[in-house]
Design goal:
Number of helices: 5
Helix content: 55-70%
Order of helices and strands: HHHHHEEE
Largest sheet: 3 strands, antiparallel
């Protein structure tokens, strides 16, 4: 039996995070239009790459770590702040999607260097 590769497990975790956050969002009766419009907002953090790879990796990683949205979700639940909880769930769904497709936290070496390994195209280019 072949052992699962860590990157495969991390992608599976991403898929579970995406499904869980989206399911919980649906149970919160959130607007699906808001979900669709806000889903890609965390990617605006890539603007940091205009300042170079070190700044870009830092801004991307802060926004694509689960730390801030989990804290936001906890505050939302504690204060009955449904918009905070909804925002956190959309954010977590985005992070889960990114991890599922192989976009990990970035190293300053370059955008394609991530904690999941080097980003590779989903389809191999022709020879």
């Amino acid at each position: 039996m072949t052992a699962l590769q860590p990157a495969t497990l991390l992608r599976a975790e991403g898929a579970i995070l995406l499904v869980a956050a989206t399911t919980l969002y649906g149970r919160e009766d959130g607007s699906w239009l808001l979900f669709a419009l806000a889903f890609l907002l965390p990617d605006l953090s890539m603007i940091g790459y205009l300042g170079g790879p070190r700044i870009g990796a830092s801004t991307y990683d802060v926004v694509h770590s689960t730390v801030l949205p989990v804290v936001l979700a906890l505050v939302g639940v504690a204060t009955d702040g449904s918009i905070l909880t909804a925002t956190a769930l959309i954010w977590l769904a985005h992070i889960g999607f990114d991890r599922m497709v192989g976009y990990g936290l970035k190293y300053a070496d370059g955008f394609k260097e991530t904690h999941l390994g080097r980003i590779r195209p989903c389809v191999a280019p022709p020879d």
